[in-house]
Design brief:
51% helix
């Protein structure tokens, strides 16, 4: 009987909330996101975004993806340009 009561007490304590932890939950994420925001009012500005246009961004992304497929031949580090093909 004593074991049953102890198990029941453990189960009930698992359902209890911890207001100290819940009150602080997510503050570090909110702070990090706020510190990384360059301009919080950017969505209200009518001017276009600075950066690449769609075609240039697509080409850059394709080049990036191709860099993992085609490998450049790497020379031995000990040769230091002696007898190179150039």
């Amino acid at each position: 009987m004593r074991i049953l009561i102890m198990m029941f007490a453990v189960l009930l304590s698992a359902c209890a909330n911890s207001p100290r932890l819940d009150r602080e939950f997510g503050n570090s994420l909110r702070l990090a996101r706020a510190q990384q925001t360059l301009n919080p009012e950017a969505g209200r500005a009518p001017r276009p975004v600075n950066g690449l246009d769609a075609q240039a961004a697509g080409a850059a992304y394709q080049n990036y993806q191709q860099s993992f497929i085609t490998r450049d031949e790497q020379s031995n580090g000990f040769t230091i340009g002696v007898g190179s093909k150039r």
